[in-house]
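Reading a protein record of the kind used here takes only a little practice. The record below shows the convention in full.

——
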Amino acid sequence: MAKVYYESDGDLKCLAGKTVAILGYGSQGHAHALNLRDSGVKVIVGEVAKPELRAKPQAAGFEVTDTPEAAKRADLISVLIPDTIQAEVYKEQLAPHMGKGKTLLFAHGFNINFKFVVPPPVVDVIMIAPKSPGHRLRELFTEGVGVPALVAVEQNASGQALPNALAYAKGLGCLKAGVIETTFKEEVETDLFGEQVVLCGGVSELVVAGFETLVEAGYQPEIAYFECLNELKLIVDLIYEGGLKYMRYSVSDTAEYGDYTRGPVVIDAHVRQTMKKILADVQNGSFAREWMEESASGGKNFAAMREKGANHLIEKVGSELRKMMAWKKKDEATAAQAQARA
């Protein structure tokens, strides 16, 4: 069973007198900075390349400096910038300041696990990965509860890497919910696999394939949209609330029977073999290298795939149908308000 840490396992005194630099004031970064400051931790914000992005953290009352200065001054540097630029930023702006006593913290194991970033052995390397978007991490912190997170230690030069990581997790509010011990390798490999095979790639392609199958069979695109995309949220909400068992309890017997008998026909042995191939590509670094090469070359293939997806019939039909759903406007307004508060 996994090791889980809770409130009593973290001590904010581990961060007393220390400075934490948050690199990247985006989705995760703003929540980390605000939650840590509200927990009594000294926080500065390091801006990587775009001076115009300093306005938001400055408006929130943070001292904002350039990245090399933040790395020089901070005891703990929290690297919350996109995966694709971490290696370059580390090499050019962080590495010169990575001496004994420093701690590098990541929220994702990508660059450390695949060796795009290789810190010196005198530096602690840790991970705290909240299992929610940043706005939810901030929202639940202000409500006095937290979101679960993962904790990992890659290098423990100081002998205090885990206590410092748990102190950071406590500052975020995550120990209220529970923090599960893992490794950089396990976190990144399961994360990439889950995104590609289930959460993003698998679900997206299944939805589009189902939609296209109905449309090609002569059914109205609007009806196909409702059956293959719109109602997906209802099912996912049930799974999220109580697992597959609760979803099956909540749907009709007809739907449940179809689940048991037709689901394995769609996700058959061939699909499972393909999943194993994708996992192998994640484990051996093939996907990581492919993605970094794509990014380094300007992302032309990525942009073309994004444009093709955005212009698919399912998107055009959905755009019109969502205008009929008054509750979505309310949800969008609520999300905008939450983002403004953050």
